[in-house]
Specification:
Blueprint (H helix, E strand, L loop, with lengths): L12 H16 L9 H8 L3 H13 L3 E4 L3 E4 L6 E3 L15 E9 L2 H7 L6 E11 L2 E10 L13 H13 L5 E10 L2 H7 L6 E11 L2 E11 L5 E3 L5 E3 L4 H7 L1
Antiparallel strand pairs: 1-2, 3-11, 4-5, 5-6, 6-9, 7-8, 8-9, 10-11
Helix pairs in contact: 1-3, 2-3
Length: 254
């Protein structure tokens, strides 16, 4: 990597540095290659480490870099194309659902989820954890919150292995009236970061889905996607897709 006169730039130093680093990633580094440490990079470009961190964080957010536990900062591969909600109006786990169930427990939902579900602040709900793996890489983790009122016929005598399938089976027996989704940028919480092999605080895309049945919210899904892996766009069909684009195509479109 060469040096540059950052002081003359009218834009913030970290943003100009991000542009310089982005060009260097294309010309000097291979996918998976580890970048020099922060001290060496900051010295080479004549910037404070805080400025360098801002630039690296922005490149991670844009999917150019990955921070990996015990490895360091590496050049990220192109984003994986994954459909998020390939078909509308289906319960989680139905049809060609690409998620794999990894466990289920009864626990009090976060306050915001409890408010949406209309459950009490200390009322346990069925919490199904699922994950999505593409090309051997876990790219998303999901928590599906189902209140007891949505699955009243669920047996209380369930083994851990039977809990999640039974919750989904009872949920599928309901007539799904509608669903809606929202997407927002967030930071990985400790458990989600562990599941996704990211560092806590890494950028993630959070897709929240509300499922309506019987005139109320019957279940809420909170799916957390790696922002360095996924690119979300809304298609004409109304479904949400993660599109795969090579870096050259990204630059041509900008």
């Amino acid at each position: 990597m060469g040096t540059t006169q950052l002081e003359a730039a009218q834009e913030p130093k970290y943003w100009h540095l991000k542009t310089v680093l982005n060009d260097a990633l294309d010309s000097e580094f291979e996918v998976g290659e580890i970048l020099p440490n922060e001290r060496d990079l900051a010295a080479r470009f004549g910037v404070a480490r805080a400025t360098l961190r801002q630039a690296l964080e922005q490149l991670e957010l844009e999917g150019r870099l990955q921070r990996r536990r015990g490895v360091g900062t590496t050049v990220a591969p192109p984003r994986i194309g994954v459909p998020v909600g390939p078909s509308a109006h289906t319960w989680p786990g139905a049809g060609r659902d690409a998620w794999a169930t990894v466990g289920c427990a009864e626990a009090v939902a976060p306050a915001q989820i409890a408010s949406v579900l209309g459950t009490g602040s200390d009322e346990p709900v069925h919490t199904v954890r699922r994950q999505r793996v593409i090309q051997g890489q876990q790219i998303a983790t999901e928590l599906l919150y189902v209140p007891a009122g949505s699955v009243p016929d669920l047996s209380g005598m369930l083994s851990p292995a039977d809990h999640a399938p039974a919750v989904l089976r009872e949920l599928h027996a309901l007539a799904l009236e509608s669903e809606d989704r929202s997407v927002e940028l967030g930071s990985a919480r400790a458990e989600d970061a562990r599941q996704l092999d990211r560092l806590p605080g890494a950028p993630v895309l959070v897709v929240t889905t509300r499922y309506f049945a019987g005139g109320r919210v019957a279940a809420v899904s909170v799916a957390t996607y790696r922002a360095d892996t996924c690119r979300l766009t809304f298609g004409d069909s109304g479904t949400l897709e993660v599109l795969h684009q090579e870096p050259d195509e990204d630059r041509a479109a900008s």
